[in-house]
Every structure is written in C-alpha cells, then in structure tokens.
Design brief:
With 471 residues, the chain is mainly alpha-helical. The chain has 18 helices and 11 strands. Helix 16 packs across helix 17. The structure holds one RNA strand of 75 nucleotides.
Length: 471
RNA sequence: GGCCCCUUAGUCUAGCGGUUAGGACGUCGCCCUCUCACGGCGAAGACAUGGGUUCAAUUCCCGUAGGGGUCACCA
C-alpha cells in the first residue's frame, strides 16, 4: 500500500476542543503507524470568525498532546501554503477550469432573493433546493456572482467508509452547490477537496458530522477528474445527556485540562479509548498506540465523555511517574495556587505520599495545601478529636518530638506506638488527634509521614497551637 | 420535516452464529488499616423492540422505537 497522507484541518474559530483533538490524534496515529505523512492545514476561509489567537491555541494544543505534524504551519512542506486564505488562486484556478468545462457555472442570484425562495419552500413544508436558475447563463465576470457546481439530479453517490461501511446519498437530496463565494473565498467542501487533492491526501479522517458532505465532495473530485480518497468518519463525542459535547457539559477546551492538572498522556489515552479498543487493555502509551492503531477497531457509535474515567486514567499515569518527575510536574500547579513550594526534598516527600491519593496535579495541590499554608481547622474534626481526653496524648507526642533530633520514620513510629501503649489505647486514638492538629482535617497520609513532611519546628508549633486551643 | 448514521449494564467497550455475554470507570459490601487513599476479594447491573433467515441468533436481513448528525455565499 502507498504510504498514507492524512491531514487534520481545523478552522481557527476557537481553541482546540476535545473532539478536534481526538480527530487529530487518530489521524496522527494512522500516519505514524504506517510511516505516512501527517499534514496540518488551517481552514481560515471564514474571515468573520477566524483569528490568529485561535491558530496559536490550536498549535499549542497539538504540541501539548505530542502530535507533531510533518507539513503545515511552522514546518512548511512541499504542498504549501497551509493556510487556505493563502491559497485563493488555487481555488480560483480550479473553479475556472470547472466553469470552462461546463461542470460549474456562475450564478448571479442574490442572497436575498434566495432567502425569499427558502422561506417560501419552508412555508409550503417543502425541501428547498436551488432551482438552477442560472444554469446555462453566459459567464459575465463583471457582475457579482458565485460559482455553483452542476450536480446530477438523479442517481446516488456512495462510498465505503472505513468505520461506518457503505454510505449512500441520493442526488435528489443535493443541489447545485456554491463552491466559490462572491468574494472569491472557497466554500468548505470545495476548499477542502482542492486542498486534499493538491496536498495528495489519500485518506480523509474527520468527525462524522461531515458524513453528509462526503457525497458532495466526491462529486467535486469527479468533476475535477481526480482520484477519490478513502474516508473514515469518527463518531461524535457526546455529553452526559447524549447531545453533542458543549460547554454545558464542562470544559471542552483541551488546554483547560492541562490547567486542571491532567497529563497529556492521560488525555490521549482516554480519548483514544473513547471509540477505539484493543481487547481489554485500558492504559496505552503513545508508542503502543502507534503500534496497535487500526481503523478496524474504531467503533461506529458515538461516545459519552466521562470525566470520572478520565480522572482514573490520569491517576494511572500520575502514579507511574517517579518522585522527581511528579514533583517537577506538580510544581507549577503549586505556584499557580499561590503556595510557596519549591522543587526540593519536602515536595518529593509530599508527592510520594499523595501519588496514591490524588488523581490530578490539582488534587495534589489541594491535599498538600496544609503543608505550605496555615491549617484550616475543620470544625467537626476539632470538636471530635481535639478533646480534653486527647490532650495528654498530644502533649506526650509533642514532648517526644521535641526530644528527637531528626524526623526519622522508625523513631516516629516508635514514639506514637509508645504513647498509645502507655495510655492503653489503640494507635488511632493518638494518630487522629495529631492528624487534626497537624493538618486541620481527618484525612491525610500516614501520621508519621505527615510529621516528617512538616519537620520538627512546624510540627511542634502546630501541636502547641492545638494544645493551647484545648486549653 | 427530508436525508444519512447509530443502538451490549449509568458510562467506555470485548464479542465477529453455539460463551455461565468478558474487561474498565462509577456504585455498593467485606478485608487490609492510625484516617484517607492504594491494594485484595465480592455484589448489583446490559444484548432497545417486533418480525424473519437458520438446527441455532447479542451476532445476518427487514420493520418499529429511541438517539445523533446534516440540510448556508459556516466549517
């Protein structure tokens, strides 16, 4: 088989969203799997909505996920330019040829008059189709016009989708489509086809909201006399209510997941499993995915985005990190939260304890807050554990710690055990009050670890404060 | 509404004519235990529905219902 050339062609009208990221990922995986080429093309012909900021945001998202492109913005390539607005002459040339060959024609109908017809059809509960008024009219470049493709009225166009199987579209549901606007801008279907042809794309993989465009595009390929590529339409990602994923369902901006403390590997892992599978395996590295990816395993059904599962996947990735890596990656989130953490031994002790307890960097920060800021004493925890009965126990722990040189785990374990034994109580009777005094709450890593993280001075200070509080 | 696509537990999925319908997230219970996690064990929970085809349908075909997508001088 010839090496695949695939592309991801976002329009820069906003940030890179979850769905787009998955489309890009599948394309990238396919290209890498077969030693093909992954092209990034920016479809910015909607001048109203396209922005440079959005272009940057999309590139940033791609880089964050680790999806590098072989041709496109920044890297160039032999089929450039890769911004559609820089390719207007290409579309014009192709459109002119179609007009010359009688496969397309200039249409002088105003938008307003067509809207009237549209309304009328709507009123009669009729399907509106452009009536072909300008078919056969002579070409007059001096009048403002659009270019329409001559679409057959009978028959049907079908294709074999790599994920959905054979899909057929009757021509009577189509119309003489506009391929070039009055201002010379190509319409989506035309621009995409001309670019895919000139960029030698041989497999088009995109969201299945494009299924209905495919027949129209195939008609354009045929009018142009070019080979039709293969198609793969990926099912949509839905929200919990099974409607198209949107802001209402939570964050759809890929990069906001970075800010929420997710690892890019986790997003890739989760996104690929939403619609693709390899037996019972849940966790995949990018390398594994490159080796295993296959359209055959891509499901045809839309999937609901499940934040809980994403969090679980993220946890799997997080806990697999070494202490050093985990600390380094978590640090920016501490800083963002305004906590004075540094990449030091203390941070490493903290992340070592929190890797099993926190599923994201943000959760790590939440759970580690008490080691960098004054404790926020939970009232229920205080009334239950910082009691008169607990006072002598805390005092004993305090004095024990005061008498120790360094905060070594074995010594701390001995201390807490001795205090409990001396009082004839279980370890919990000592540990819980101490935990509340030291962290402000009832949930934390092992009490010895907490003391070690806090260090001698801070431990004593917090214990004294608790003692004073009890009175 | 027309057209197109989809349909295994709450969710993601395995399955590709004969299985006690498997795994994962989540939920619940028990164990471990200084709390919380982690881990271990266990439980509840699915083939939308009606017809065919077949010795045999979750699996193949058709209808119905439900869901999604799309019907622009947007992409």
């Amino acid at each position: 088989m010839t090496a695949p050339r695939v592309r991801f062609a976002p329009s820069p009208t906003g940030y890179l969203h979850i769905g787009g990221a998955r489309t890009a990922l599948f394309n990238w995986l396919y290209a890498r799997r077969h030693g093909g080429t992954f092209v990034l093309r920016i479809e910015d012909t909607d001048r109203e909505r396209s922005t440079q900021v959005a272009v940057e945001a999309i590139l940033e998202g791609m880089r964050w996920l680790g999806l590098d492109w072989d041709e496109g913005p920044g890297v160039g390539g032999p089929h450039g330019p890769y911004f559609q607005t820089e390719r207007l002459d290409v579309y014009r040339a192709h459109a002119d040829r179609l007009v010359r060959e009688g496969k397309a024609y200039a249409c002088y109908c105003g938008k307003e008059e067509l809207d009237v017809l549209r309304k009328q059809a709507e009123g009669e509960k009729r399907q509106f189709r452009y009536p072909g008024t300008c078919r056969g009219k002579p070409y007059d470049p001096s009048r403002r016009h659009v270019i329409r493709l001559v679409v057959p009225e009978t028959g049907a166009t079908s294709f074999d989708d790599l994920v959905k199987g054979t899909i057929s579209t009757p021509h009577d549901t189509l119309q003489d489509e506009v391929i070039l606007r009055g201002d010379g801008m190509p319409l989506y279907n035309f621009g995409a086809v001309v670019d895919d042809v000139t960029m030698e794309i041989n497999l088009v993989a995109r969201g299945d909201d494009h299924v209905n465009n495919t027949a129209r595009q195939i008609l354009i390929y045929q009018a142009l006399g070019y080979p039709v590529p293969a198609f793969a339409h990926l099912p949509m990602i839905l929200g919990a209510d099974r409607t198209r994923l949107s802001k209402r369902h939570g964050a759809t901006n890929l990069m906001s997941y970075r800010d929420m403390g997710f690892m890019p590997q986790a997003l890739v892992n989760y996104l690929v499993r939403l619609g693709w599978s390899h037996g019972d395996q849940e966790i995949f590295t990018l390398q594994e995915l490159v080796e295993l990816f296959d359209w055959k395993q891509v499901g045809a059904t839309a999937g609901v985005f499940n934040p809980d599962k994403l969090l679980w996947v993220n946890h799997q990735w997080l806990r697999a990190l070494s202490d050093d890596e985990l600390a380094a990656r978590a640090l920016p989130h501490f800083t963002a939260a305004g906590l004075p953490a540094a990449d030091d031994q203390k941070l490493r002790l903290i992340v070592r304890q929190l890797r099993e307890r926190a599923k994201s960097f943000v959760e790590i920060v939440q759970q580690a807050r008490c080691y960098y800021a004054p404790i926020q004493l939970d009232e229920k925890a205080r009334s239950k554990h910082l009691t008169a009965e607990a006072r002598p126990l805390l005092k004993a722990v305090r004095d024990g710690v005061a008498g120790m040189e360094a905060m070594e785990l074995p010594a701390l374990e001995r201390l807490f055990a001795e205090v409990a034994a001396a009082a004839g109580l279980g370890l919990g009777k000592v540990a819980q009050p101490a935990r509340v005094a030291l962290t402000g709450g009832t949930a934390s890593p092992g009490i010895h670890d907490v003391v070690q993280i806090l260090g001698k001075a801070e431990t004593l200070a917090r214990l004294d404060a608790a003692l004073a509080l009890i009175g």
